[in-house]
């Protein structure tokens, strides 16, 4: 009976996860995966390209910085490549990739904020008491409005590091990727009801912080343009490395087919417009191409 129940739940999750793809598109994806696992290099490249941006953006929001996200995304994509033959189609491929990425990122300890954890209390105190007026001009002739935009994107991304890894993951899956609670709960190993409750709580917590402190996305007094030099001094942004403003944004619909939410969890959807998505950096794309073009691919193919 349990086996029948599990099969039924798999069918429900798969159908929910397939939303946005018609049957022909779904079967085409499965055929491509089968070709990839049988040793077709071009098919494997296409499979990895289809999830590369998804993995990078999840890594970026979970870890906070572009360099850390690139490193983690490379690790995850290599896991996807080397374990692709274990994918049985019991869920949609994107769900399988999400689960692989989430399991890797929740316990990832090689990123900067694993060594220097943040809290909302620390962030709020820094906004209230940072001596921004005492810092000289450090902009290095880069337009201040560009640096302010870089700080805005960086600050709101790093702010996610104030959440514990589980809450951060729930927020990202629910707010950025708009995953159905059945799929998100399955990925995280919790019930859909528990996922919805926790997502609502963490979104309210984020919204309350933005409302109190942030003048860009809330009603607070903090303005990025006023804190540019302070941020440069504290190595939060660098005029010679503009990761966020230098990245190429992409629409969520292009990266990941999401359906219109059928469940109303809260009224906070418009509070988090900073959750943008970006193309994978060229360094990440090249590292995966180099791997697939090298002798390592033969080992994977023949495994």
List keywords for this structure.
mainly alpha; 16 helices; 2 strands; two-stranded antiparallel sheet; 303 residues
Task: Please describe the topology of this protein.
Elements: H1 2-17, H2 23-37, H3 41-63, H4 66-82, H5 93-106, H6 112-115, H7 120-129, H8 144-159, H9 165-176, H10 181-188, H11 192-213, H12 228-233, H13 243-246, E1 249-250, H14 252-255, E2 277-278, H15 282-293, H16 296-301
Antiparallel strand pairs: 1-2
Describe the structure.
- A two-stranded antiparallel ribbon has the order 1-2.
- By secondary structure, it is mainly α.
- The protein contains 16 helices and two strands.
- Helix 2 crosses helix 3 (41-63), helix 4 (66-82) packs parallel to helix 15 (282-293) and helix 5 (93-106) crosses helix 10.
- The chain is globular.
- It starts with a helix and ends with a helix.
Concise summary:
The protein is mostly helical and 303 residues long. It has 16 helices and two strands. The protein has a two-stranded antiparallel sheet with strand order 1-2.
The general outline is globular
What is the percentage of strand-forming residues? under 5%
What structural category arises from helix and sheet content?
mainly alpha
For the biggest β-sheet, the strand order reads 1-2
Average pLDDT taken over every residue: 87
Specify Rg, calculated over alpha carbons. Answer: 21 Å
Give a quick account of the main beta sheet: strands, pairing sense, barrel closure.
Answer: 2 strands, antiparallel
